[in-house]
Amino acid sequence: MNVNIHSSWKAILQNEFEKPYFEELMNFVREEYASHKCFPPKDEIFSAFDLCAFEDVKVVIIGQDPYHGDGQANGLCFSVADGVAHPPSLMNIFKELETDLGIPYPKSGNLEHLAKQGVLLLNATLTVRAHEAGSHQKKGWEQFTDNAIKMISKEKEGVIFLLWGGFAKKKEKLIDTSKHTIFTSGHPSPLSANRGYWFGNKHFSKTNLLLKSKNRKEINWL
């Protein structure tokens, strides 16, 4: 299976690609895609690493699993392909953007424009079987993505991590907080958001204020 990633990640992750677990993982993924309908499309599995160069990473958002509905997942956490109806979590992200930054609710749920500005939109598990949430968990993806987070923490300075919900917050232990900033809140899913754990977190304006204070280019969230 081809690992389509931006060349800047290759040196950073090369050790991972050579480990036995990664070879087993790729064999598993290959077999799953050959015998079942899986998402995202094969050439978009590594989109988070392909669209956002390592040297450009300013912000990291961590999701859990790709969307498992037809045509939704495009390799970036919380993002969907153009023309696809917005899932509930994404709707709540856009609602928070509206109230936090006064950004009009967008038509497209495709977040590629964020990836290209240095927002790494990383799911912990990069593939899923159609209509079976969590079906590719604990096969090796978490080891791969945890090690990617560790490498960002080790090799970079001043990255802003947005950890939404209990699952993402567990990744805090992988991050050197003396060098990086972490903002946490509830998950944007309706279950969490409707209980008051998501709306009003102002993570988008806080991120831009922090970037501005360090004379770094702010994220255009629109």
**Could you name the ranges where pLDDT drops below 50 across 5 or more consecutive residues?**
none
Beta-strand percentage range? 5-15%
Q: Helical segment tally? A: 9
> How big is the Rg?
17 Å
Question: What order do the strands of the largest sheet run in, or round the barrel if closed?
Answer: 3-2-5-6
Largest sheet: 4 strands, parallel
Outline, from the CA principal axes? globular
Q: For the terminal residues, how far apart are their CA atoms?
A: 34 Å
What is the average per-residue confidence, as pLDDT, rounded to a whole number?
96
Spell the H/E element sequence: HHEHEHHEEHEHEHH
Count every beta strand, where a strand is a DSSP E run of 2 or more residues.
6
Helix content: 25-40%
Helix vs. strand class:
alpha/beta
Protein name: Uracil-DNA glycosylase
InterPro entries: UDG_fam1, Ura-DNA_Glyclase_AS, Uracil-DNA_glycosylase-like, Uracil-DNA_glycosylase-like_sf
Subcellular location: Cytoplasm
Function: Excises uracil residues from the DNA which can arise as a result of misincorporation of dUMP residues by DNA polymerase or due to deamination of cytosine.
Question: Could you explain the architecture of this structure?
Answer:
Its main location: cytoplasm. Residues 50-211 form the Uracil-DNA glycosylase-like domain. It catalyses: Hydrolyzes single-stranded DNA or mismatched double-stranded DNA and polynucleotides, releasing free uracil. The chain has 9 helices and 6 strands; from the N terminus they run ααβαβααββαβαβαα. It is an alpha/beta fold and 222 residues long. Strands 3-2-5-6 form a 4-stranded parallel sheet. The mean pLDDT is 96.
